[in-house]
Amino acid sequence: MIVCVCRRVSDRDIKRQAQAGCISFDDLQMETGVATCCGRCGDCARDVFAQAQAHGAVAMIHGHPAQGSASLALPA
Ligand code: FES
User: Fold this and answer.
1) pLDDT at residue 56, rounded to an integer
2) Residues sharing a CB contact under 8 Å with residue 22, sequence separation 6 or more, in sequence order
3) Mutate to test the pocket of ligand 1, among 8, 40, 46 (most ligand atoms within 8 A of CB)
4) Would you tell me which CATH number, out of the four given (1.10.10.1100, 1.10.357.140, 3.30.70.1140, 1.10.10.10), belongs to the domain 2-72?
């Protein structure tokens, strides 16, 4: 699904960035350009990013870290 029409960023792109260690929405914007033009996609992009981060954290808890998500590890 395309999240950001202006920058052609999909939900998969956002999830990929979260799995690669992108830890803030600002970082996501720098990497993808999402929500940096008209801004209409901002809320949706933030939701998709938050879900991707939550999924990565749950994967870490269950011992199945998403690729490149070591920065999402929870403290012991
Ligand atoms: S739709 Fe994402 S900045 Fe316009």
Assistant:
1) 78
2) 28, 31
3) 40
4) 1.10.10.1100
Condensed to tens digits (0 to 9), the pLDDT of residues 13-63 reads: 999 999 999 999 999 999 999 999 999 999 999 999 999 999 876 666 666
Map out the domains of the chain as residue ranges.
2-72
Output the pTM of the full model.
0.77
Q: 38 CB under 6 A from ligand 1?
A: yes
Cα 34 from chain centre: 11
